[in-house]
Fold:
Amino acid sequence: MDMRPYLLSTVSALALSGVASAADMPVKTPAFPSAVTWTGFYLGAHGGFAWLDASQTITGPISIGSTCTTAPAARCDIDDTGGVFGGQIGYNWQSRDWVFGIEADASGTGLKRTETFAHTGFSHVINDKMDWLASVRGRLGWAVGDTLFYGTAGVAFSHFDAGWLRIGGAARAQFDRSTTGWVAGGGIEKIFSRNWSARVEFLHYGFGKDSLGSTIGGTYTTAFRHDVSVVRLGLNFRP
Structure:
C-alpha cells in the first residue's frame, strides 16, 4: 500500500495548524513607538557644574594692590566654580526633522568667592556671590529619530551680591540686586522610553556691567562684570 499520499496530507495539516497558532499569538508591544515625535509638553530637573568669571573695577582714591591691578583704576578678577541644580519646563513642535521649542528654567548655584588681603596698613575684603540663575530661551534642533541636536538662546536673569570693604576705614561699596542678561548654548537630547528623555548641554550667560556709586570714605564708582558658563545633565518627563 502506497503511504505517500497519507503522509503528505498529514504534514500539510500540521503546517496549517502551526500557521494558525502563530497568528493567534500575542504581539509584544515595543517600548516606545517606532515613529518618535518630539512634539509636546515636558518638565524635568537638571544638575551640573558652573564657572563664574567676574571682575570689579573700582575708580576713586583707592589702591588695593596684590590680587588687583591699580592705576588708573583698581581691577579685581574673581573666579569661582560650584554646582548648579534646578528644573525646567517647555514645549516642542516638530516639522519633519526640525524641532522648535521654548523653555524656561531656574537653578540655584553654589558660586561664592571672598578674597582678603592687607595693603597700605588696611585689610581689604573683595566678595562675589551668585544666588541663582534663570532663563527663558528658544530652542531649534535637528532630530535624528530619538536623538535631538539643538541650539538655544534667550534672556537670562540672576541675583548677585558683590562688593568690597576696607576694614578699619570707611571705604566700601556693595551691590545686591537682580540683573538681566543673555544666554546661549546647545546640547544633545535622547528619548529612551515612551515618557522619558535625557540631555547634556552647555550654556553661557553674559550679564554685562552694572555700576554702583559710593561716597563713603571718598567718591568711588565700582563696575561689576559677570559671566557664567554651565555644563549640566537633565532628565525630562513627557506626559
Observations:
- Residues 39-237 form a domain with the Porin fold (CATH 2.40.160.20).
- The CA atoms of residues 141 and 150 lie 4 Å apart.
